[in-house]
Amino acid sequence: MEFKQQFSSREEITTYLGQMFKGLYTGEPRAPALHGGRSASLAQLEAFKAKNYGRRNHTNAPVSRLSAYLRHGQLSMLEVAEYIRSHSQGRERDEFLKQLTWRDFFYLVLEQKGLKVLENLEEPKYPMRWVQPMPDDILEARTNLPCVDAWVSKLVDTGYLHNHERLWFAAYTVHFRQIHWQAGFAFFREHLLDGDIASNALSWQWVASTFSHKPYFMNKDNISKFSSNQWCAGCRAKCPFDKTYQTLERELFGADYGWSS
Ligand SMILES: Cc1cc2nc3c(=O)[nH]c(=O)nc-3n(C[C@H](O)[C@H](O)[C@H](O)COP(=O)(O)OP(=O)(O)OC[C@H]3O[C@@H](n4cnc5c(N)ncnc54)[C@H](O)[C@@H]3O)c2cc1C
Q1: Please, are residues 96 and 73 in contact by the beta-carbon 8 Å criterion?
Q2: Which of 163, 175, 179 to mutate to test the pocket of ligand 1 (most atoms within 8 A of CB)?
Q3: From the CB of 180, is ligand 1 less than 6 Å away?
Q4: What pLDDT is attached to residue 106?
Q5: 194: phi then psi, degrees, rounded to nearest 5
């Protein structure tokens, strides 16, 4: 209440908070791209009906954008699940509830394992040569790969990435650049508005193969298909993804494991 009376604009709040939290963040203080609070979170929930959620793997699909509200406790998982049960139906409802269950599952793993989730939970499934830290060309969005640079810019500018973009970026970092997943986890945690320990660390480990029976990786066809050719059309970069899965498997992991068949 008092907070509302003291400030008349978002800019004023940003300036005030920037001074209060000086030293705890990098770069210039700025307001997040997403409005927070209970009213904004309810409006977001009520606008979402899981329509076309079956297309959720496409980067232009109408996903809920509820993760930051769930992360900061402005919505509970239970109320989101209840809402979707009563406002949508069929496969789209079930698919949405399945995704929510992943979140719940990751929290259960965190509860059980504690901060061990920040270390490899299993041995990697290939002879890895991961190094730290995250290289500057990735951090500064100048890899010369338009898709990768776009994911980094979007992450830093908006605090959000679509799930498929997170997967692609993680696979690029860990498998194509051989950066330790922990460096990727830290980068996401710094910038994601929904950044948390459970979903973030365990998703990176799932991609890396330390929380899964095989690594996740993608090729150009996959990026092109699920991004509606957004970055591939007209791209002149020397594309590291433009190979068959079988070739990538041999090049990235050193053997033919049959993961791509
Ligand atoms: C490398 C990597 C890191 C990630 N880090 C985070 C993170 O720090 N915080 C976070 O909340 N999610 C994380 N995710 C999971 C997922 O990408 C986001 O939850 C989702 O993209 C958020 O967008 P949305 O709310 O529109 O999702 P929707 O598709 O609308 O899904 C609805 C809700 O279900 C849950 N959900 C959906 N997909 C997943 C998933 N794959 N894993 C776990 N929960 C899911 C989220 O709570 C989401 O809000 C990560 C995924 C990857 C691959």
Answers
A1: no
A2: 163
A3: no
A4: 98
A5: -100, 10
Q: Look at residues 193, 202, 59, 187 and name the one whose alpha carbon lies nearest to residue 121.
A: 202
Task: Report pLDDT for 27.
Answer: 83
Q: Phi and psi of 131, rounded to 5°? A: -125, 165
Q: Which atom from ligand 1 is nearest to the alpha carbon of 167? A: 53
Fold of 2-115: 1.25.40
Minimal-distance CA residue to ligand 1 atom 4: 200
Q: Where are the domains of the chain?
A: 2-115, 136-253
**Cβ of residue 41 lying under 6 Å from some atom of ligand 1:** no
Band the pLDDT of 1: cuts 50, 70, 90.
Answer: very low
Q: What is the CATH number of domain 136-253?
A: 1.10.579.10
Q: Tell me: pLDDT of 261 over 80.
A: no
On whether the pTM is more than 0.85, the answer is: yes
Q: Residue 194: CB within 6 Å of ligand 1?
A: yes
